Amino acid sequence: MAAVIAAQRPHYVLWLPVLLGAGICAYFSLKFEPSWVGALAVLLAPALAVLWQWRRARAGGSVALLLLFGLALAFGAGFAAGKVRTEMVRGPVLEKQMRFANVTGTIRSLELLESGRGSRAVLDDLSIEEIASEKTPRRIRMTISKDEGLRPGQRIRVLGGLNPPSAPVAPGSFDFQRYAYFRELGAMGFAYKAPEILSEQKGGFYQGLENYRLMLAQAAKEHVGERETGVVIALLTGERAAMSEDLWDDVRIAGLAHIIAISGMNIGMAAGAAFFLSRLLMALFPRFALYHPIKSYAAVIAFIAAFAYALIVGMSVPTFRALIMTGLFLMAIGLNRSPFSMRLAAVSAGALLLFYPDILLGASFQMSFAAVIGLIWFYDVTRDWWVEAYTKAGWLQRAMIYLAGVCLTTILATIVTAPFSLYHFQQVATYGVAANFIVVPLASFIIMPLAILVYFLAPLGLADWPLAGMAWGVDVMLDIARIVAGWPHAVVHWPVWSGAALGIMTFGMLFMLLWAGRSRWLGLLPLAVGMVMVVVATPPDILISSTGKLWAARMDSDRMMISSRVADRFTAEVWTQESGLPEGSTEKIPNEGLYQGENGMVSCDADACRMEMDGAKVAFVNQPAALATDCAWADVVVARMPVEKECAAGAVIDRFDVWRNGSVAIWVRDGEEPVIRSVRDLRGDRPWAMNNGR
């Protein structure tokens, strides 16, 4: 055991971001907001223990105990980072819907939407009629269909409707309220008419950058066909809102979303193009190349290009993560060190988690770092073979080695990111290797180099020909995406499962990738446990929306029955996806009559619907007149109105319950009491959780 632990010495630093992430998970999993005293205690207690044991270790004390306290300190730092970040972004949030609101604000950013839909603006420095200044959100996001003449930096006044950020549509679903909270968005809305421009743009670097991005998007709309415009704008500016949902579905199903979502691949392509071009130019001057470290110079130039690209596409958290990793990678090249290092990933992950702990909960961080760590591990193990094969190969063999690398990279990335894709999106692409085999070289050698030319030529009004080249490459990419997405079983669907299973599987994968020695294969045990938890997990049998206007039931294994096709349509779409069903797998429950499914039956009339499933009886009451009868008959009563009188049913969910607690999920089992969970049950009372009646 001592020998095994001693072998981990070079890997100690790799476990620091893992324990940091564990502390962040512990903070966000709480159902109450910890006090400053509690958060600091979690940090200071192990810090004092480290200082105490460090002094003892210098006098011959246990080093293993010092290591244990150090890991506990990393855990405490993650917990405290979550608390600090939460308090830093804390701000007012709109408490209730405003159908009509006169809003005055400054356009912070402007994002073009699909053709004919206008723009989506983020406004700050706000003044909202009938809302006191201390309760006014810092920022709001507003869709403006009539956006002619709008520019970032302008002060505008607009009449619109505002809504608070929406709560999860089911227990365990994506928490948009938390997402908006950490981006300081206190309301979402739309404009009824064209805004009134009160003052023109302000100066400054940030506003100049936003105007440059808007100019790139407008140039793409002018010189690129409607089909390719959204993708070109996404690659140039980092904004995907101009893409149609149909195109995005094809790209996602074909496994090509990583090319459009600005991340490590895009930053790496921009840095790589700058590195090789600058090194080639310097190598054209033999005397300069002989007496100067041109590879180090090229690495510096490449980082400048990567930094500029990150600024242009918007320094989002995933882009910032990619920039940090690319910078460390180029630093290693400049210092003639191996850039393929787990420590590189550990340093960048640790830095991001300390400053933006909330990103740990997002799919982007989890999938990108899973891919990076898996690829570094694989290519580190097989590095000697690749170097030998590439050194001895001719130009044709080298091209084949490159394509083989693309295929292997896609296969490995798909495998290690599959659990996270299934957890967050309930689906994973099946034929990503085939699509990436063609599209990755196309993006690397045609689309991204032309994008760099657009950045230089667009301000001069000469971007038409590189934009045309980009459009051709994007058109080919979209054709491939459409073909691959149309193949049978192009996407695997899976019902939603618990975060605990994902955490256990993640620990197993990290143990196998970060632990040294043969004992690393012990990580297969938690990985297998997590997989079993995924297989046995079952989606809810019944779902009720937070408005009480929509409910759904899994009456068949391949179909979801819903009470309405009009009410809460977005909610119904999410429920279908999280049940592991393909789009279009919903069916309206008949307003009158009986429906018999695999899992039970439901009969409806004008007053109520009565369901029997696995021995449980559930009544959905539409009219007060049916309450007495259904309370006597059902195990669970779901009422669209308040239930003020005694009800004999085992559980009652009325209009006030869903108003206070959010959407509700129900699991029924033969011979057992139904299990009922609400959004509030899982989230608790946190600063971002806008629970009514709190």
TrEMBL record:
The keyword Cell membrane applies. The keyword Oxidoreductase does not apply. InterPro entries: ComEC_N (IPR004477), Competence_DNA_uptake (IPR052159), DUF4131 (IPR025405). Residues 33-194 form the DUF4131 domain. GO terms for cellular component: plasma membrane. It is a multi-pass membrane protein. The chain crosses the membrane at residues 12-30, 36-54, 61-81, 253-277, 297-316, 352-379, 399-422, 434-458, 494-514, 521-539. Keywords: Cell membrane, Membrane, Transmembrane, Transmembrane helix. Pfam families: Competence, DUF4131. It is found in: Cell membrane. Residues 235-517 form the ComEC/Rec2-related protein domain. This is ComEC/Rec2-related domain protein.
